[in-house]
Design a protein that fits this description.
alpha/beta, Metallo-beta-lactamase, Chain A
């Protein structure tokens, strides 16, 4: 079956095969979080984005593979509810932005910021800091070093969804920061065919969302 990105809690994962990278998307927990297990196809090394919930389910997906890193996109508990259990089982180090790292239930081995790179196997992910949903929210970009025949792929946590940016709970300053970062660092740098993998719900592309940026600014959320 072709990849759609449409997953539901309790349902099967969806798998996408890219040049050099396999992406497994699964929905977990009462907040219907997305967790993404990435595998370097050259070496088999694994990286998990957001150990959100249902540790047993995540560990089942990891199986006997070598989990080399867990990246937490931001500090909210629904995105790290299974973190402690997965770290205990795998001993994988954790990466997060320094502004959110101190709120996590385990030590952060690798604090990452705008422009940093996270490597596992032969895969490199680029860190994008998107301040607003939380102070230390990050996205992760996979573009194959610019050599992908396929479009770029970006994992946005709760900073960008189909239909808008993440919740800033009516805080104008946080909203202006988040939408400014999303406009300049995501839409301003990446092409329309960039695939977006959010922290909840369905995937989208920048081309689908770009015409609505003005509407998002006007409504203020």
């Amino acid at each position: 079956m072709p990849y759609t990105g449409d997953v539901a809690v309790g349902g099967p994962a969806d798998v996408r095969e890219l040049p050099g990278l396999s992406i497994t998307k699964v929905a977990v927990g009462s907040f219907e979080n997305n967790a993404y297990l990435l595998r370097c196809t050259a070496t088999g090394d694994l990286l998990l984005i957001d150990a959100a919930s249902e540790a047993e389910r995540l560990l089942e997906l990891i199986g006997d593979g070598r989990l080399t890193r867990i990246v937490t996109t931001h500090r909210h508990q629904d995105h790290w509810g299974a973190l402690e259990a997965v770290v205990e089982a795998t001993k994988a180090p954790v990466s997060a932005h320094p502004l959110d790292a101190g709120t996590l239930p385990v030590p952060v081995a690798d604090e990452v910021d705008e422009g940093d790179e996270i490597r596992f196997g032969e895969v490199t992910l680029k860190v994008i800091h998107l301040k607003g949903h939380t102070p230390g929210s990050i996205a992760l970009l996979y573009d194959g070093g610019g050599a992908l025949a396929d479009a770029p792929h970006v994992f946005t946590g709760d900073s960008l969804f189909p239909g808008g940016v993440g919740n800033t709970w009516g805080n104008k300053e946080n909203f202006e920061s988040l939408i400014g970062d999303v406009e300049s660092k995501i839409f301003g740098r990446l092409p329309d065919d960039t695939w977006v993998y959010p922290g909840h719900g369905k995937d989208t592309t920048l081309g689908v969302e770009r015409p609505h940026l003005g509407e998002w600014r006007e409504r203020g959320w």
